[in-house]
Design goal:
single chain; mainly alpha; Arc Repressor Mutant, subunit A; globular
Length: about 90
């Protein structure tokens, strides 16, 4: 099995998944306040739980335009994220 955002998104948006979205958003906001950008591995190091759900939470924040990936590598942990211009978390 491989990561499938569509499948993971459905579970993420359940009552069980919403706290992960909020934790991910809070940690991202803290990292952005500190450095202005962050690698995905720094965000993931502060989270715990199902890895695919954590990836889905990041993808969901990008879908909402809360985050934007500015450096996309084949190894996902090296992706770099910022807040979109003019947007505050």
């Amino acid at each position: 099995m491989s990561y499938d955002y569509t499948k993971e998104r459905a579970e993420l948006l359940s009552e069980k998944g919403v706290p992960l979205i909020l934790r991910t958003r809070d940690i991202a906001a803290r990292l952005l306040k500190t450095a202005g950008a962050f690698r995905e591995q720094e965000l993931m190091a502060s989270l715990s739980g199902d890895s695919w759900q954590m990836l889905a939470a990041v993808d969901y924040l990008c879908e909402l335009k809360e985050l934007v990936c500015i450096f996309d590598k084949s190894a996902r942990q090296y992706n770099v994220y910022m807040r979109p211009e003019g947007r505050e978390l």
